[in-house]
């Protein structure tokens, strides 16, 4: 399976996971000049708009997918969240950035880890 295909499957799994938890997916693969937000969803607790970065790997040999979120990516995610918020007509009082890491070995059940409030 190609890296792109694995990433797409991971994003689909993450969106399904969020919806199963009662979240509403507002946007997927939202793009602007700063880059792309994988998933924008509403967590019913609050309610809170959540910007979700999804990282999927076929194994953890090179480290867990969550380990690939560095300082530069965090800065980009904050800029993307700001751009999405600025593009909205209504004011959004509560928001945060989450990360979902998925390890999905071929022909095995994927392991999903959801980290709330990436700092």
UniProtKB/TrEMBL annotation:
Stored Pfam families: UPF0102
Database matches in InterPro entries: Restrct_endonuc-II-like, tRNA_endonuc-like_dom_sf, UPF0102_YraN-like
CDD domains found in the cross-reference section: PoNe_Nuclease (cd20736)
Domain of life: Bacteria
Coiled coil: none
Family: Belongs to the UPF0102 family.
Protein name: UPF0102 protein GCM10009823_27450
Organism: Brevibacterium salitolerans
């Amino acid at each position: 399976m190609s890296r792109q295909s694995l990433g797409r499957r991971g994003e689909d799994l993450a969106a399904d996971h969020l919806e199963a938890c009662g979240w509403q997916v507002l946007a997927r693969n939202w793009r602007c000049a700063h880059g792309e937000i994988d998933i924008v969803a509403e967590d019913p607790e609050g309610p809170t708009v959540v910007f979700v970065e999804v990282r999927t790997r076929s194994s953890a040999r090179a480290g867990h997918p969550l380990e690939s979120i560095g300082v530069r990516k965090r800065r980009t995610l904050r800029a993307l969240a700001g751009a999405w918020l600025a593009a909205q007509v209504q004011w959004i009082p509560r928001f945060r950035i989450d990360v979902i890491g998925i390890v999905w070995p071929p022909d095995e059940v994927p392991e999903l880890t959801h980290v709330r409030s990436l700092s």
